[in-house]
Structures are given as C-alpha cells and as structure tokens.
Amino acid sequence: MKFAGLVEYDGTEFAGWAEQPGQRTVEGELRRALGTVLRQPVKLSVAGRTDAGVHASGQVVSFAAETGLAPDLIAYKATAVLPQDVALRRCTVVPDAFDARKDARSRSYEYRIVNSPVRSPLRRRYAAFVPRELDFGLLRRAAALVRGVHDFRAFTPSRTYHVRFERIVSESRWERAGELLTYHVTADSFLYGMVRSLVGTMLEVAEGKRSLEGLERLLEGAERRQAGPAAPARGLTLVGAGYEDLSFGG
After folding, report:
1. How many helices (H) and strands (E) does the chain have?
2. What kind of fold does domain 2-103 have according to CATH?
3. Per the annotation, does 192 bind a ligand?
4. Which active-site residues does the annotation give?
5. Is 153's pLDDT higher than 60?
6. Cα(189)–Cα(86) distance, rounded to whole angstroms?
C-alpha cells in the first residue's frame, strides 16, 4: 500500500532533509518514527530536499508499507514518537505509482525578512534580519523579472549535480506587512540554493548596489560569483508542493 504524508518541521536544529551519517536530519527522524510505528523499514520520496536550517510547513513525502493502520492513525502515532521540531501532520492513501518527487508539478517557498533598525527576538528562528533601508518598489520590480522561464545557473553553486539550469517560475512576488517582508515564489522545481541566492541578489537591488538590468542579465545565465550572496537559511520555508490529484483534507 502507498501513502503520502504532509510534513512540517522547524529546520533550525537539522542538517537538512537528506539523511547523512552522523548528522541529525529530517529524513532520518521521520524514517525512524515510521519504522517504529509500522514495524518495518520505510523508504521515503520527498517533494523538496531542504537545506540545513530551512523550515517546512508543506513538505510532501511518499512511502510504501504493508499495514492495517488507518492513515490518520499512522500520522498520529508517528508524530507521537517524533521529536518536537517535526510532525507528520497528515497522511493519506495514494495510488501505488505515486511518487512525491517525480509527480510534483511545482514547489512553493516563502522567504521572510524583518526589515527594521532593531531585531525581533520572537522572529529570529523564522526570518532573516535586515536593518538597512530597502527600496520596496525596487524589490517588487526585481521579483517580477524572475517570473517566467530563465537560466538560473548564477543562483546555484558552481560545483553542482544539476545538468539543466532552466526553470519555470510561475509566481515571484514580495509583500509587506509593517516591518515583515515576505517573498513568495513557485516554480516547477528549484536548483540547490536557488531561492536564497535570488533573495540575496534582490536585496542588493533594493539597496541600490545592483541594477535591475544587471539582475536581468543574470537570469540569462551567468557564473555564480556574479550574483549576490545567499540569504540566511532561517528565513526560508517550503510551504507546499503541487500535484495533479492529491488532497490531505482538513
């Protein structure tokens, strides 16, 4: 039987999603919890392999298991044995051919920034702090340039496993609520480190350190060193993945 799960985690204390020897990872914790509950080894497929320090409210996984437990009970029992910074919020039965990574048509992220002269202790784990003055109009115009089909090789490390650098970005926009700035971005898929590098580069535009034309040239394909620095991991959250036919209900 095949299941899909909706996973939420605070990435602060994790070395990323992917299991690594000697490291605390989200995949490692979730596999152990499901193995305990289902009393069998579990292999996970995941919509987005988040980096160290990155959070998720809408991560999607899939796994196969022979069990008589109802999906809701799997989620409840797994979360009961998981550490406090990760939870299997929902679980549902899916077709045997379903794969959380291969079947995902899009992934969506949000990046949060506290733009204020004084830092916010309550938001320190989930938002980056930028005390410098930013031109929000330029930030919005920069985000608009990112929409569409572009070559994003300037926004991923030079040494990479990627062979295709073109991505289709369907949503790219900033919104402001007082001192909190939130970047919303959705694409068919993302290169390693792409969102954080885009944010770091757009911040340079908003600070007057880089022109909109310069950003536009980067989106045609350029070397990583020509783009801005990656923004801190703590501001980034994977908020969802899109599928043709998948619902976790309420």
Report:
1. 5, 10
2. Alpha-Beta Plaits (3.30.70)
3. no
4. 51
5. yes
6. 23
